[in-house]
Amino acid sequence: MISTFINKNKLSNDFTSIAKDYFIPLAEEIKTHQSSATTTYFVGINGSQGSGKSTLSAFLKDYLTDTYGMNVVVMSLDDFYFSQIERKIVAADVHPLFTTRGVPGTHNMRQAKTVMHDLKHQQPTTIPRFNKATDNPHPTSSWTKVSSAVDIVIFEGWCWGVEPQTSKQLKQPVNALETIEDEHADWRNHVNLQLSLHYKPLYNWMDKWVMLKAPCFEDIYAWRLEQEQKLNAATTHDDKSGIMNEQQIQRFIQHYQRLTEHALNTLPNICDHVFELNFERAITAHKIKAIHA
Predict the structure, then answer these.
(1) Which pLDDT belongs to residue 293?
(2) Distance between CA 113 and CA 239 in Å, rounded?
(3) Angle at the Cα of 95 from the Cα atoms of 114 and 97, rounded to 5 degrees
(4) Which letter, b or e, does each residue of 172-207 get, where b requires 16 or more Cβ atoms within 10 Å of its Cβ?
(5) % of residues, the chain, pLDDT over 70
(6) CA distances from 99 to 3, 82, 124, 260, 283 (A)
(7) Domain boundaries, position 118
(8) What is the CATH number of the domain that holds 141?
(9) CA distance 225 to 217
(10) In the beta sheet, which residues pair with residue 208?
(11) If you average pLDDT over every residue of the chain, what do you get?
């Protein structure tokens, strides 16, 4: 199963030991807990851009499906991004920085909540899909339709699980983007408000939390650039308007810096499993949250 997964996802053979040492035990733990649950079991995965969230989610799904015949659905926070037109409306109403996808306030969380509710209550639903090459959602005809009861939902996202910041934390800009383009902190305060109102309440739906922890924010630029290069190579149609060059990536990730660093500082104390990564994305440590009786 592992070799098939490696070939399908074009991974190095190093993934074999990662899967055996870390990801299969995690999958077995999820399966055990799901078996004792009375409803659909939700797993939240947090990780910065390029940390491997999609690969981990896909592996858990394939392993649990192939080994136990379970019905597993993977959802990405990215797939709930608003369209360019919708983000421009938010930008006109609130702040120009909301034209760029990424931060809380650029996702359709009402839709996310509806989909999660449907899955939890084992009702048919449709999960949107977002096309980063065009920076817009895929046509609804290509969205993922779920018609049967789901055993496990894996919900992954770069800021999924991140708690709102304090007003004191929001005062000081963290990079040039915030210093120059968010001088009065209107953008980051609204991001924080959206996080508090529409994201945090949904965290309670998660039964287990997993984090892929980057070594530091500086390494994420290289990871994100690699993602964009792979996206460009995989995009065969003419419309590549959403694909960014190196300079655009450098500006783009500044939108993510505040909450990414906040996640690196706070989520390790909250998540049930924390896989610490080095720059090569090899796992250097695995920390499991202690369960007190």
Answers:
(1) 40
(2) 31
(3) 85
(4) ebbbebbeeebeebebbbbbbebbeebbeebbebbb
(5) 96
(6) 41, 10, 32, 19, 35
(7) 2-277
(8) 3.40.50.300
(9) 13
(10) 43
(11) 93
Q: Structure tokens of 32?
A: 């055990």
pLDDT of residue 244: 76
Alpha carbon dihedral 53, 193, 270, 213, in 10-degree steps, equals 30
Q: Is the pLDDT reported for residue 238 higher than 70?
A: no
Average pLDDT value for residue range 22-46: 95
Residues 253-271 pLDDT 10s: 999 999 999 999 999 999 9
- Residues near 290 by beta carbon (within 8 Å), at least 6 away in sequence: none
Is 290 domain-assigned? no
Number of independent structural domains in the chain? 1
Residue type, 234: A
Residue 172 has pLDDT above 80, yes or no: yes
The amino acid sitting at 23 is F
Q: Give the closest residue to 14 by CA, choosing from 230, 210, 223, 283.
A: 283
In a domain, residue 289? The reply is no
Query: What's the CA gap between 12 and 63, in Å, rounded?
Result: 18
Question: Is 92 inside any structural domain?
Answer: yes
Q: How far out from the chain centre does Cα 130 lie?
A: 13
Phi, psi of 148 (to 5 degrees): -120, 165
| Strand 273-277 to 283-288 pairing | antiparallel
Q: Which residue has the tokens 């993922």?
A: 144
Task: Tell whether 287 is covered by a domain.
Answer: no
- Reply yes or no on whether the pLDDT at 192 is more than 50: yes
In this structure, the number of other CB atoms found within 10 A of the CB of residue 21 comes to: 11
> Any idea how long the chain is?
293
